[in-house]
Write a structure and sequence with these properties.
Layout (H helix, E strand, L loop, with lengths): L15 E4 L8 H15 L7 H7 L3 H12 L5 H9 L14 H10 L5 E5 L4 H8 L3 H4 L7 E2 L16 H13 L13 E5 L2 H9 L3 E4 L3 H6 L4 H5 L3 H12 L7 H10 L7 E2 L5 E3 L18
Parallel strand pairs: 1-2, 1-4, 2-3, 4-5, 5-7
Antiparallel strand pairs: 6-7
Helix pairs in contact: 2-3, 2-12
Length: 297
Amino acid sequence: MSHDENPSNMFPPIRACIFDVDGLLINSEDIYTDVYNKILHSYGRPALKWTTKALQQSRGTIGDERLISGTKLPLTVKEFRAQVALHHNTFTSSQLLPGVLSLLSRLSSAQPQIHLAVASSTTTPFFATKTSHLPSLTAHFSPLMCLFSDDGDMQSKKGKPAGDIYLLALERVNSSMDAGKGGKVKPEECLVFEDSIAGVAAGRAAGMRVCWVPHVGLRAVCKGMEKDVLAGKMEDVEGRLLGLEASAEPVVETEMADGFLGGSGEVERIISDDGSAEMLGSLTDFDYARYGIRPVL
């Protein structure tokens, strides 16, 4: 399939969109990197590499163990997380990423209705810290439609890259719907928006379509691996990233900022071989017609 081919006739129209948060809706991944670098520098360690960050994102304890090992920090996971927690107030400075409000407004106006939900590895209180000053964002999501790692329903589930959190979010969407309006939403009628490799794998594992919007730093280290990321081949991608980690350059802070705050409309759209996932430079590049979505605004 070519990058320009529109497979809208291959799939049913999208009826629900489920969003990650960090690095997708807000620039908190840049803030995380700044916090990690402060901790690293306090132990005389060099700045974080994007290969290391790519292996850590959305991977919970495994991800933090990789970061600690890859940076040679003399800390346990518990100690590392305690130091990160000391910087939580820094996240009150988070900003919306390019195209977020326009996308959410247009999706909210669409007919037939598009159901919106959040499925994030963050916790409920930390989500509030990151977004309470951004009412234009949170207004688009009912609290019932916001699912986080500390949710009671997630305690018996697996985190990303398993598809559990997205399937649970879909259950909530379906439980909120009127019985007679088109029937329950199926996984193939859901579109997941993600920025991390593990998040894309989670969306694919849930049987949903995926829109991957990686940070410019992640996009750079995944050059040539995009199709594997989009296919959900996380283990293959991580194996190649582990091979690159030893020689990778540290993250350049100006590149980090430009990648999130400046956006990019010039990045080539890359589509998975089966047409069910695509990579975009930013949310401003989203193609509504490709997914059968008809916004009114």
